[in-house]
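User: What would this chain look like folded?
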Amino acid sequence: MAQWFVNGVDLERFGVQRTSVVRPPVQVRVTATPVPGAHGVRMPSRPPVFDEPMIGLDFMLKGPDTDALAAELMGLFASSRLDLARVVDGHETVARGRLLSITPGDHMAGVYGHYTVVLGGPGGFFRGEPGTVGLNRGDNFLGGLADSTAPINDPVFRVQGHGRFAVTDSDNGTSLSWDGAAPDGGFVFVSAELMRAWASMDANGWDGPPGPQAGVIDYPPAGRLHLWPHPAPGLPGGRALNIYLDADATILSVVMRARPAYL
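Assistant: Here's the prediction, encoded as structure tokens.
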């Protein structure tokens, strides 16, 4: 059973039930094309896209304060911003949420009340804490992100120097390239999610705010960069993430900041 928090409130306060979802169902959008006279279907060249997960939470309010707790529960989930935290086996992941429905069930005033809340996860995945890693030219095996169970589509790269660099997921071929120049003594931050690049003199300017576009960003026909860990051969239960960095000699350093992603 997962332990759930919404906006910092432990949902045990409302008697969250074991019937509540631990990991939401996963659905993907893939357009497969039937080919006349051929067996099977033709798969697209790009990786599948994940739909928004639906998170169902069941509550059983008990005691003389049932009605007051019900009002508190509804007010909490009707908040303009919902920040979710899920703790499973001591591992905490977080996500933005949005309210889809609150359904009352059996109820006896001052005794008990059953409620079902359904939330959406517009970001697609739960996320872990961000980490940074310096990239070398050629293959980079990233153990710190390899336990992700979902693709990571929002890494940010901090660049020093000038010229072109490209980062490619070696497993699925998605990629991101940038061509430009960082200011003397400063940096350019390149966002794979926003497809934006901004200059900053602050080495910690990962979150912007993005200023004027700095340089040119592109991606190949395989699609925009998705870092996607895959099962490691010969290592039962193990996962691997291998990305390849191609950079001009005038690119002095490339540092990546990314957050693990979980279904």
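The helical segments are 66-77. If you want, I can go into more detail on any region.
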